[in-house]
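Incident log, structure service

09:12 report received: a user says their structure output differs between two submissions of the same chain.
09:20 pulled the input from the user's history:
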Amino acid sequence: MNAAFARAQAAYASDGLATTPSTKLLVLLLQRAMRDLDDARNALARNHIEAAHTALMHAQDIIHELHLALDPDGFEGGRTLADLYGYLTERLIAANSTKRTEVVDECAQLLAPIAEAFTEASQLSRDIAGVGATA
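09:34 re-ran on a clean worker, output below:
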């Protein structure tokens, strides 16, 4: 799966998509979903069920919207990413229905490499754009 994300990262960087506001929004949404998972984990540790529910629903909404916005044929690895978004949605539903931190942790472990790959691609693209602007 990491190879697919590396290809997706390279596709974003080479196509210049990471310089668009939509890619910055993508990175921000992924980071927010990670924060939601952290918030849910912390709420569950304190037995704050409503706060955990709210955080998990927000993360689920983000992943759902990213899944809807994804063009799975738009880049190599797109279909894998679509499948992963679908699986993440299923696991977020399971996390919310069971209120088990292990399931929240599983979601975070699945989402972290995606967030990191798009963050790195966005930074790489900005770096490349900066070099092109000064050359």
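09:41 both user submissions now match this output. Likely a transient worker issue. Closing.
09:42 reviewer note: The longest helix spans residues 101-134. The domain at 35-126 is CATH 1.20.120.340 (Four Helix Bundle (Hemerythrin (Met), subunit A)).
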